[in-house]
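Support reply, case 0932

Customer input (verbatim):
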Amino acid sequence: MHKSITFFIILMILVAASPIIAQDLNLSPYGYISINIPTEDGDEYQIQRARVGVTTAQLLENGTVKTKFEFDINSAIVKWAYGQFDKSLWQGTVSLVVGIHPNSVACLYPGPKNLRLTRWPDMLDHHTLYSTGTSIWYKKGNFTGRATHFNHNSSSFALTFYGLSGFWEKNTCLGGMFESPWTTRLLHPYMGGMSCDDALGNLFFIQNYVQLPYNNRLYGQYDFGDTKDSWLFGINHEFSTDCFIKCFYETRDEKIIGEVNFAFN
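Our regenerated output:
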C-alpha cells in the first residue's frame, strides 16, 4: 500500500509541476501503474509496476538531443536512463543512444506501458530487455535498423520493413516477427518465432485481435514450440490513452487474470 501512495504522491507533484517544468527546462514528465485485480478467493490487489519518468527533447542546429529517465517505485530500480542524439542523414534519421535503454530486440514489441495483453509472448522472455551500452538506430520510411552493444560483451541487431522483422542476439537466439500492415476489423495478425542457442530450442507465437465497439478488443494468443503450449485469450478495454482494464484466461495456469493500467503523459 505504501508503494501505491508514494507513486500517487510523486505523480501529483509531476502533474502540478509539469507546466512550469516543460516551459523552463523543456521536460515532459509521465507515469504509469499496473495493478493486478483479484479474480479468485485468496487473491489480493498487487502492484506489478509503478513508474515515473521524464523525457526531454532539445533541437540543435545539427540535430536533436533527447533524454529519458524512468524509475520503478515498486522495485526501486532505474529502468531507463539514456541520452539520444538524432541527426538527419542518408535521407533518413540516424540515432546514437547511450545508457540504460531498450535492447534492439526489445524495441520490436510494445510495452510495458502500452501492453494490451497481460503478458508478453513466451519467446520474448528470453531476450535482454534493459541493456546498458550503446546503440545505433537508422530509420527511413517503413525501414528501421537497430544495432546494440551492451553489458560489456553482448550485442544484438534488428531490422524491420513493413511489419516484417528479423533479429539476432548474441548467445541467445535468431528469429523473426511479422505484424501485418494489412488488417480488417476481425484480423490483426501478429506472429513470431525464434531458434534459441540453449536448451529452449524453438519457440513461436501467433496472436490476433478483433476490434469491438466502445474501444474494446478481443485478443487471442497461442504460444508453442519446444515448451509447454499455452493459450491466452481475453478482452481489453481502453478508457483513455494507455489506460486499460484487462481480463484474460491463461490455460497454462488455468487462471483468470485481471489487471488495470493507469497512465499520464
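We compared this against your earlier run and they match. Two observations from our side: The chain has a mean pLDDT of 87. Helices lie at 2-25. Please reopen the case if you see a mismatch on your end.
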